[in-house]
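Journal club side-thread
Mid-discussion, someone asked how the predicted structure for our own chain would compare to the paper's figures. Pasting it here so we can look after the session.
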Amino acid sequence: MTSGHRYQFRASAINRVGEGAKSPISAVIIAATVPNRPEAPIFVSATSTSITILLAAASDDGGAPVTHYVIYADDGNQNQDNFTPVASYNGQTLEWTILQSAEPRFATGSIYRFRSSAINSIGESKVSNSVLVAMADRADKPLAPTVDRTQSSQTSLFVKW
């Protein structure tokens, strides 16, 4: 059998007298398996109200085209394996922005784990490893460092910012 090809079968029994009648033709069977497990999603960017991640396409579709992907997110409690699908994800694009306005379960300042899986006509792949992302803005640029000469000496320099 060749991966990805469609097959149909018929069967008959043979005994001393000869071959019997053939069975009806089977339903179409695709020589395929579920897709390979995708690599972990990649962090692209985040703000206080959004997270953008990039999914890795499955390296092997198992012989049947990948029809869609699923993004899973935990509940922000890294001590549990409580992952559920991101409802707003369309399943088609590999880069996706999760908006807090569309997904109210995501809270500003919380840290989430994201995983993905690939699905073809045979079924769903194993889920990927996780990427850890905070729904938060980047930290502000710190002030320029200054030297406190009153606390510095010949062998040490006291710097603050």
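Post-session note: The CA atoms of residues 55 and 94 lie 5 Å apart.
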